[in-house]
């Protein structure tokens, strides 16, 4: 059998595609994931944390709100619609979003776990997906949703006692009893981990939080600001020249690397509570600091730090480090090794407006990517709010017709100047 579409990786984005493809008559789809089951950032399912997009940014609703795999239907099937209604929640607990996705993955016949795809080739008019075990899988089109991997700054990569935020929960008990713990990173994960340690550590002293950003800044969450996560802005961004795009993404860091205002308020409230009686809490929060070196220091680590604005340096001794330093897009090179994918000036895959890789002309099938196109589609690439829209766009492209009627306009803002 030759599939119409085969997916590699089952994270939220390929899960969204599988959910929207399920009701399409005659469309043969299968998604493959090397893990045994769906899990979404299990090391960061800290009690009380929420996702940073509204619940309508589920797997399907922004493309098909009538789908049986919507979050509201998930609540109905678990007899929780009224509790959700009275809770008046707009942002879901992170653990609930994970459970919702696992519920959806269990209902989709196209999701096949425990299958590792190691390579993709083109042969005899179809893509050949080569699993670690078993026969090759044939597909006319493929979609790559292999996600991201934890990223560490170079000075920290060779050391023990460094925990990436992705592995925080398994390491939490050890961090609660460590003498000095340094959290690195000013994004949402860093803030949540700092707050969790601040609340739980028996010894509140010895807790430090540093970041390269000039401040512990809030995420952009104004209504017009959020329109930069719309398909309209994605189209505008994709049409910009490559050098302009490369300059723009780092400048937009507060769109995706800031902290939500509620978490900032909770941190301040906890620090304020600890200051009652004119006793400043013995914790350290210092932005504008870069880690320039790190060496083992007895039972801990000596961190070499530089303050960018002051131009000063210091060495801090710490017993453990939590690196909330983000994620890097997983390389597609090993998976697509035999395929001559077009590259831009910086060696990154060229991705067309409809999320396809540019392949040689003799390959008649299409290879799509999900969350590997920030350099061509902007900061919305990893955003859950665009998941259903992008998945529906890919399905329309695969089928060659409008299976999903997507809106022609999605923002009040007109991005770009019309030439007259």
Protein architecture, described:
With 420 residues, the protein is α/β, with parallel strands linked by helices. The chain is built from twelve helices and 21 strands. The strands form six sheets. It has a five-stranded parallel sheet, with helices on one face. Strands 12-19-13-14-15 form a five-stranded parallel sheet, with helices on one face. A four-stranded mixed sheet has the order 1-9-8-7, with no helix packed on it. Helix 1 crosses helix 12 and helix 6 runs parallel beside helix 10. It is globular, with a radius of gyration of 23 Å. The mean pLDDT is 95.
Helix-strand layout with pairing:
Elements lengths: L1 E2 L1 E4 L3 H10 L7 E5 L16 E5 L16 H7 L3 H7 L3 E3 H14 L3 E3 L3 E7 L2 E6 L5 E3 L2 E3 L3 E3 L11 E3 L3 H10 L3 E4 L3 H13 L6 E4 L20 H8 L3 H10 L1 H4 L4 H15 L7 E4 L2 E9 L2 E8 L5 E6 L1 E4 L3 E3 L37 E3 L4 H4 L9 H13 L21
Parallel strand pairs: 1-9, 2-3, 2-10, 3-6, 10-21, 12-19, 13-14, 13-19, 14-15
Antiparallel strand pairs: 4-5, 7-8, 8-9, 11-20, 16-17, 17-18
Helix pairs in contact: 1-12, 6-10
């Amino acid at each position: 059998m030759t599939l119409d579409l085969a997916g590699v990786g089952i994270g939220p984005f390929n899960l969204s595609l599988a959910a929207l493809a399920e009701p399409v008559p005659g469309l043969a789809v299968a998604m493959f994931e090397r893990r045994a089951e769906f899990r979404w950032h299990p090391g960061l399912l800290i009690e009380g944390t929420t996702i940073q997009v509204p619940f309508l940014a589920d797997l399907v609703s922004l493309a098909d709100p009538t789908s049986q795999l919507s979050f509201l239907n998930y609540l109905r099937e678990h007899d929780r619609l009224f509790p959700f209604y009275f809770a008046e929640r707009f942002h879901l607990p992170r653990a609930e979003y994970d459970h919702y996705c696992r519920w959806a993955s269990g209902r989709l016949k196209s999701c096949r776990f425990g299958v590792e795809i190691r390579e993709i080739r083109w042969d005899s008019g179809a893509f050949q997906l080569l699993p670690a075990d078993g026969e090759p899988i044939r597909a006319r089109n493929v979609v790559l949703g292999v996600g991201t991997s934890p990223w560490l700054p170079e000075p920290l990569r060779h050391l023990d006692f460094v925990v990436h935020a992705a592995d925080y929960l398994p390491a939490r008990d050890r961090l609660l009893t460590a003498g000095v713990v340094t959290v690195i990173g000013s994004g949402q994960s860093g803030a949540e981990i700092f707050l969790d340690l601040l609340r739980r550590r028996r010894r509140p002293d010895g807790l430090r939080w540093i970041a390269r950003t000039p401040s512990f800044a809030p995420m952009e969450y104004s209504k017009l600001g959020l329109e930069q996560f719309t398909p309209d802005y994605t189209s505008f961004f994709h049409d910009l020249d490559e050098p302009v795009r490369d300059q723009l993404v780092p400048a937009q860091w507060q769109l995706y690397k800031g902290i939500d205002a509620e978490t900032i308020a909770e941190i301040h409230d906890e620090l304020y509570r600890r200051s009652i009686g004119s006793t400043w809490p013995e914790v350290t929060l210092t932005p504008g600091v870069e880690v320039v070196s790190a060496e083992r220091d007895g039972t801990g680590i000596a961190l070499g730090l530089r303050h960018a604005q002051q131009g000063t340096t210091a060495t801090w001794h710490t017993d453990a480090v939590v690196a909330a330093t983000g994620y890097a897009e997983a390389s597609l090179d090993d998976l697509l090794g035999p395929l001559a994918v077009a590259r831009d000036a910086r060696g990154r895959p060229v991705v067309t407006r409809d999320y396809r890789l540019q392949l040689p002309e003799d390959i008649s099938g299409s290879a799509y990517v999900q969350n590997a196109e920030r350099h061509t589609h902007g900061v919305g690439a990893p955003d859950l709010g665009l998941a259903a829209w992008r998945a529906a766009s890919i399905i329309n492209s695969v089928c060659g017709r409008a299976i999903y009627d997507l809106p022609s306009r999605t923002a009040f803002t007109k991005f770009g100047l019309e030439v007259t």
